[in-house]
Amino acid sequence: MTTPDIWFTLYSLARKGALHRSITITTSELGGVLGISQQTASRRISYCVDEGFVARTHTAAGMLLQITERGRRELSEVLGELEIAFVPPGDEIVIRGSVTHGLGEGAYYVEVYATRFREALGFLPFSGTLNVIIREEESRKATTRMRQSPPLIVHGFSYEGRTFGDVICYRVKVDNAVEGAVVIAQRTHHSENTLEVIAPYDLREKLGLEDEDIVELTVIPLHMAT
Amino acid sequence: MTTPDIWFTLYSLARKGALHRSITITTSELGGVLGISQQTASRRISYCVDEGFVARTHTAAGMLLQITERGRRELSEVLGELEIAFVPPGDEIVIRGSVTHGLGEGAYYVEVYATRFREALGFLPFSGTLNVIIREEESRKATTRMRQSPPLIVHGFSYEGRTFGDVICYRVKVDNAVEGAVVIAQRTHHSENTLEVIAPYDLREKLGLEDEDIVELTVIPLHMAT
DNA sequence: ATTACTAAGACACGAGTAT
DNA sequence: TATACTCGTGTCTTAGTAA
Prior knowledge:
Two copies of one chain form a homodimer. Chain A has helices at residues 3-15, 27-34, 38-50, 69-86, 105-121, 136-148, 203-206; strands at 23-25, 54-59, 62-67, 93-100, 130-134, 152-154, 157-159, 162-164, 167-174, 178-185, 194-198, 214-219. Chain A is an alpha+beta fold. Chain A has two domains: 3-76, Arc Repressor Mutant, subunit A, CATH 1.10.10.10; 90-224, Riboflavin kinase-like (Elongation Factor Tu (Ef-tu), domain 3, Beta Barrel), CATH 2.40.30. The first copy, chain A, is elongated. The N and C termini of chain A lie far apart (46 Å). Chain A binds chain B through residues 2-5, 7-8, 11, 14-15, 17, 19-21, 35, 75-76, 78-79, 81-83, 85-89, 136-137, 140, and chain B through 2-5, 7-8, 11, 14-15, 17, 19-21, 35, 75-76, 78-79, 81-83, 85-89, 136-137, 140.
C-alpha cells in the first residue's frame, strides 16, 4: 500500500468524523467512498490498522473505526504542508495565541542557557519566558512553517552535574514590535499547544501583556533574521 | 491513474511552489519525490496535464510546471475538507474578514429579492449588503463549511422584464450579535474573496462598522437556525 | 449480515531504448 | 541531456467463497 492510498483512506475516514470519535462503517461502504471493491477496502483498512493509523473494533454490523494519534499526526502533517503551500510566497506566517502563565520553570532554564542563546540568537534573553497558548490550527501551521526553515539549534551541555538537552529556536517577531525566539526544548514532552517565547526584554512589561491577552508571533525566515 | 495519485502529485508540486509560479523539475526528480521511477513520473505528469490540473512547457533542462486553476481548485477542495475535519465537532466555524464598500448594487437587488428572502430566512432584510473581504484561507474554510450544510436556495424569477437568478443563502451570526445571511448570487461571477451579508438591520449602523473594520461571521448550521 | 482468504486476472510499474 | 514509448514482469485488484 502506497503513501497516497494511506492518505486517501485516512482523509476519507476523517471526513466522516473519525478524528474525533469512532465511526461505524462497513468495508463495502468504505469501498464505495474510495472507489474500490469491498475486498480491497478490507485490505486497506487492515493495513492502516497494522501500521497503527487506525484503531478498529469489530461489531456485528461492521467495524468501529477511529483514527489514532499516529494517524492524526500523519494527516496533520499533510494538512500543514498544504496550508503553507497555499500561502503566497513572501507572505508572513502569523501565529495568534493568548498569553498564559507558565510553571515558572522557564526563568531558571533561560538563565542557564543564557549565554548560549546569545551566541545563537544575538541577544541576551530576559530571564523569563512568555508562554503562549495556540489553537490546534495555528499550532499546525506554526510547527509546519517552522520546520521548513533550518532550525537554530542550541546544543545541550552539562552544568553542576545536571544534563541540559538541545533546544531548538525559531526567530519570531512578537506583536510586530519585538524580535525574539520561540524555544522548544527537545527533551521535554512539551505541550504542542503552548509556545515559549524569549526576547531581550521582559515581554509582558514591554508590550503591556496580561494573561489571556492575544499576541501575534510573526515567523521570521532564517535568511532574513538579523 | 487514481485520485490519490493525482492528489499526491499535485501536493508534491504545490510544496515546491507550483501553485504560485512555474517550477523547473525533471521527471527523474519528481520520481524521487514521489518515490516512483522516472518513467512513471513522466506518465503521471502527462496525465495531470491531459486532465488540465497542470500546465507544462518543455525546456532543454526539464519541464516548467505550474498548477492550473483547475488543479488549484482540486487541492483547495481537499485542503478545505481536511481543515473542517480537524475542527472539533460542535465548534463553530468563524470567518474573519474586513468590511468594505460594495458597488452599491447590493441594495437594489436586496429590495427586489426582499420578500423572497423573508420567506427563506424569516426576516425582511435591510436594503443594503455588508461586503466583507476575506483572506483566501478563510474563504476556503468558509465555502467548504457552507457547502456542507444544505443551502437555502432562493429561486430566480422574472420582474419588470428582467430575469433574476437563483441566490444561495447561508445563515451567519455577525459579530456574535446579529443573525443574518451570506448571500451568493449564482449568475454573477462573484469574487470568491468578498462575501455579501444581509440582515434585518443596517449592520454598519447597528454594529458601528466602518470600512476596514474586522467582522466575524459565525456560520450557523442549518438545523440550528431559528 | 459481516470480514477476509484464495486464485485468476488486470493493470501499473520500470528496464530498455527511441526521439 | 531531456521526455516518453514498448513490453515483459510483478503487484494489486477483484470475483468467488469461506468463516
